[in-house]
Amino acid sequence: MTSRPRSTALLASLALVLGLTAAAAADVADPLAADLDGILGDPRLASSAVGLVVRDAGTGDLLYSRSGHTRFQPASTAKLVTGAVALDGLGPDHRWTTDLATTAAAQGDELAGDLYLRGTGDPTMLAQDYDDLAAQLAATGVRTVQGALVADDTWFDSVPLGTGWAWDDEPYYYSAQTSALTFAPDTDYDSGAVAVRVSPGAAGGPAQVSVTPPVDLDIRNTATTAAGGSGVRVSRAHGTNVVHVSGSIAPGAAAHAAYISVDGPTALVAGLFRKSLAAKGITVTGGTEFRATPASARVLATHRSMPLSELLVPFLKLSNNMHAEAIIKSLGREFHGQGTWAAGIRALESLLPGLGANPLTMNLFDGSGLSRMNVLSPDLLVNVLRSARTKPWFPSWYAALPVAGRSERLEGGTLRSRMAGTAAAGNVRAKTGSLTGVTGLAGYVTNADGRELVFSMVFNNFVSGVPRDVEDAIAVRLASDRAGQSQPGVGAGRRAAPGAEADPVRDLECSWTKSC
Using CA atoms, how far apart are residues 414 and 80, in angstroms rounded to an integer? Predict the structure, then answer.
């Protein structure tokens, strides 16, 4: 049902004077609503669940609502809730630490006991950061650890994947395992994942394979170097760290890069850090163990992450799922002493009223929106967006949202290829959300009158390809709106684009396929 704010008396008068039906009079009085209705009349949305809410950002005046109270699967628009709650609860200056600690005494250049590597969930740890920790330890004069290397990931629980996540997504980097000790391959900070690069070797010979960071995976390479090159496929067997590389690549071709998740990141971190220690001339005589660091341990070296306010950029611009889950478990640890999804969601729900939202109107099971069990309403997202404008951290939040039509990757993010050359370009700042049969867009736009608006749209249960052009048409219509002026032809005669059938890859966030 569509809600249109209007005066009943005025509509009646228009109908009498102009001889119009009530519906036609409504369109005259509210051309924006009429145009939005037209856009939402796209045949691809027939029999689908459609929600759209538009409000004045400052006054809260309702400009349009269709199914605003209805709960939808939000996909990655849920990250708006996670990000706003994190800024309010953890604070924009929150950092994650990774420590080296021991209870042992130093004897000359020897540490007479175990060395603990303790993580608190930093999703931005690179191989270089582990090297830096090893360098800090070497700078203290330690050359031998007469004990074990103990990997401590107990800041979070041992549940690696979220409730309601698809099992067949498990090998993909955007559905990686969450651990308090983890790593990322590059400055997209896709934690719990590696980059597998396949390069041509000698003609007729095997292709060359490298892994970043250089963790110990079981690489089974049958890819060859052959004229023409049929393409390369990289896959990880479910529940293992066996990586299959197959196909062929042409001599002289650019390297093929594939991002995949790993199984059990904590153990791989331990192996990676052993290499860092060895490179700095430090020998660990014992094996690798996995347990908590004693409370009496003293810290020998520390790495601190970037602040949350900076992490927001790759988190929101690139829709990074693993950042969301590290945030949720960190909230649980901060407010309830438990680094679990359940404790984190409980903390999120307790903080939501401070963002103008009622937690009893939604159900979340993770922070990223990957779970098919998540439901929330367009109204809730709009309330969070409006409330965020009143917070001291709003400038960081606003700057971290994807910007329509801005080609720079860490500016435009998941909107960098959308709405270019329109009134929405450089204007719409919004979070995207995509799963098969689910798409959403929620954020801010300033219309042609200079009026700041907040909007939230979520579409569920369509069976075509993702109707992102419908989302874009709505955003452009809002950006170009002038009070009382219709835009003839908007939404009229819309048809699905050729070949717009559902596609499991194309339906994902473009950042998850590294296509934007």
Answer: 14
